[in-house]
């Protein structure tokens, strides 16, 4: 007799455990067992736990091709979220894994059948009826909605499967409480700012000094932040000076190393950032919101320096161009106002719009159209972990009425949602969605044109690694174009991805300063929010800068068990490790190390 060990892995989702009676049937080519009760003398199938059971098979039973699950329908027995089942033969020393990642419901006469590794294109799945029924049920749970005017496709409601796990939620709340406690004592002593040193002090004695604390006035650091800061995707090669940017050769002569503007453009040494998208965005009445342009010049050293800032789009006497030749605090104020505008763009567009909200629609459409057994679902699913939960529950504390964005930012919740909607309308899969294309379109793809742009260098290498990984998975399961054409799930998936948002789709397109008087430190302090707002901003930005999931490739939930696919995953991890080592080696000698696209710093999913 062959001793068989059966292990059930109950998920960690809210309500995942069950006290129901569960039966399993082992099915071979020509034999199958009777229903085997999975029950010990203590509570089994509890949330986040592994339960083990033993049975025996007669000689000659054959290789197990399927398992079949059923459960009782007692009213007091809750649904059960099962991650996977392992069936191990002690005689053959062979273990089979049956990925499930499903709720096992108490519907009358409901039978669930799974094959080892559970990966099938829909037309080849031996359990087509079960697959179709599951997708029909998921389409009722995963529904798109537009939650603010011209906004992206989002989840209408949070499906039960998407809630935070108990462990993650506790850790997130604990981290937030710890950060708040670190600044709580300062709030008891808050008063007016007396000097910029006061601002430095509250960091030093609470959350720690930011890396740029000692360089915020430095022009080289300002230039570096356009390449390595939170919003490095907006700098462009300046091919011509916009008509509304009132810079002249006389104004810039001290800052272009002897070149004229035309010569600097010819030599590809001038760069521009243009935040015109901020025009017309709502701001709190007492605040200033600029839609600035900034001009940067690459010196012979290879580093870029700011040479001109115009704080609003329409030139004129009340909208001068500021340069490093202005009095120090006047120039500093121009950089401060510019940086605040870029921060509004980063948080609204790059972070919330293009990351959280854009991918929320992709997540919903994927769940609606691709079975959990689909190889492309297994490829994508690890990167959706907690996305809908953080967007639905977590972001309420961030952008809900009267919350952090309303209380601390220039544009409030109203302006942020306007800016997100505006940016989403401009987003293109072919341009922003393909990293090298985005670099090329902005004229910054060549290293000779813009040295020390590690965001580009590391991003392109990481993009190529991900591209190879995805391509390998695709070609593993689709050998011909006909295979793609026959895959009705992937066809419906693409159709909903590009369908208008008002029709329930994701709506993706292209798939394949007014004063020139010298300022003082006191003037700068008047632009800084009060200490309570600064402290609240410190806490939330620190929290949003943390990583909530494992690093890229180290998946929290294992969906892929098919041996050839597992080999592709291992190659992906090896490539990521090699890139990480390369980046770390470069950073040992770099004047300004860049770590943000080191695979060990890139999280698997959008969970914060």
UniProtKB/TrEMBL annotation:
The lineage of its organism: Eukaryota, Metazoa, Ecdysozoa, Arthropoda, Crustacea. Pfam families: Lipoxygenase, PLAT. GO terms for molecular function: metal ion binding; oxidoreductase activity, acting on single donors with incorporation of molecular oxygen, incorporation of two atoms of oxygen. InterPro entries: LipOase, LipOase_C, LipOase_C_sf, LipOase_CS, PLAT/LH2_dom, PLAT/LH2_dom_sf. Coiled coil: none annotated. It comes from Cyprideis torosa. This is Uncharacterized protein. GO terms for biological process: lipid oxidation. PROSITE patterns: LIPOXYGENASE_2, LIPOXYGENASE_3, PLAT.
């Amino acid at each position: 007799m062959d001793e068989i060990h059966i292990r059930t892995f109950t998920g960690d989702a809210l309500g995942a455990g069950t006290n129901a009676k569960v039966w399993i049937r082992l099915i071979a080519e020509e034999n199958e067992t009777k229903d085997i009760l999975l029950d010990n003398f203590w509570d089994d199938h509890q949330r986040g736990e592994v339960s083990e059971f033993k049975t025996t098979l007669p000689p000659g039973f054959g290789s197990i091709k399927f398992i079949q699950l059923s459960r009782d329908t007692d009213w007091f027995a809750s649904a059960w979220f099962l991650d996977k089942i392992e069936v191990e033969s002690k005689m053959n020393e062979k273990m089979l894994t049956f990925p499930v990642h499903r709720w096992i419901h108490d519907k009358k006469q409901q039978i669930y059948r799974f094959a080892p590794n559970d990966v099938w294109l829909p037309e080849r799945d031996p359990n087509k009826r079960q697959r179709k029924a599951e997708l029909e049920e998921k389409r009722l749970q995963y529904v798109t909605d537009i939650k603010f005017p011209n906004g992206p496709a989002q989840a209408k409601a949070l499906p039960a499967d998407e809630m935070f796990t108990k462990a993650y939620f506790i850790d997130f709340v604990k981290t937030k409480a710890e950060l708040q406690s670190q600044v709580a004592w300062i709030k008891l002593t808050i008063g007016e700012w007396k000097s910029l040193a006061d601002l430095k002090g509250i960091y030093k004695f609470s959350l720690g000094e930011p890396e740029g604390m000692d360089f915020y006035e430095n022009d080289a650091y300002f230039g570096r932040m356009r390449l390595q800061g939170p919003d490095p995707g907006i700098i462009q090669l300046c091919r011509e000076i916009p008509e509304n940017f009132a810079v002249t050769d006389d104004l810039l002569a001290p800052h272009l190393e002897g070149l004229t503007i035309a010569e600097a453009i010819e030599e590809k040494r001038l760069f521009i950032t243009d935040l015109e998208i901020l025009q017309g965005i709502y701001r709190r009445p007492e605040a200033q919101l600029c839609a600035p342009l900034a001009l940067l010049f690459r010196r012979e050293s290879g580093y870029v320096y700011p040479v001109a800032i115009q704080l609003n789009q329409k030139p004129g006497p009340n909208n001068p161009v500021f340069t490093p030749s202005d009095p120090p605090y006047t120039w500093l104020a121009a950089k401060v106002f510019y940086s605040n505008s870029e921060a509004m763009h980063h948080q609204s567009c790059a972070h919330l719009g293009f990351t959280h909200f854009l991918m929320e629609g992709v997540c919903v459409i994927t769940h609606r159209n691709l079975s959990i057994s689909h190889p492309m679902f297994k490829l994508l699913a690890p990167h959706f972990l907690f996305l809908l939960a953080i967007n639905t529950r977590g972001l309420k504390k961030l952008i809900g009425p009267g919350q952090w964005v309303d209380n601390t930012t220039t544009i409030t919740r109203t302006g942020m949602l306007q800016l997100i909607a505006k940016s989403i309308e401009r987003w293109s899969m072919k341009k922003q969605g393909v990293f090298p294309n985005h670099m090329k379109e902005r004229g910054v793809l060549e290293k000779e044109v813009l040295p020390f742009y590690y965001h580009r260098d590391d991003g392109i290498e990481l993009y190529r690694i991900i591209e190879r990984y995805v391509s390998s998975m695709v070609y593993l399961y689709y050998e011909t174009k006909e295979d793609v054409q026959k895959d009705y799930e992937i066809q419906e998936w693409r159709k909903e991805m590009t369908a208008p948002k008002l029709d329930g789709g994701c709506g993706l397109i292209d798939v394949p300063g007014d004063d020139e008087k010298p300022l003082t430190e006191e003037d700068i302090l008047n632009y800084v929010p009060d200490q309570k707002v600064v402290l609240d901003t410190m806490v939330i930005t620190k929290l949003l800068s943390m990583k909530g999931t494992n690093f890229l490739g180290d998946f929290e939930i294992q969906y892929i068990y098919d041996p050839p696919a597992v080999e592709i995953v291992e190659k992906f991890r090896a490539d990521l490790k090699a890139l990480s080592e390369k980046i770390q080696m470069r950073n040992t000698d770099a004047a300004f190390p860049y770590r943000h696209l080191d695979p060990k710093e890139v999280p698997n999913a959008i969970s914060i």
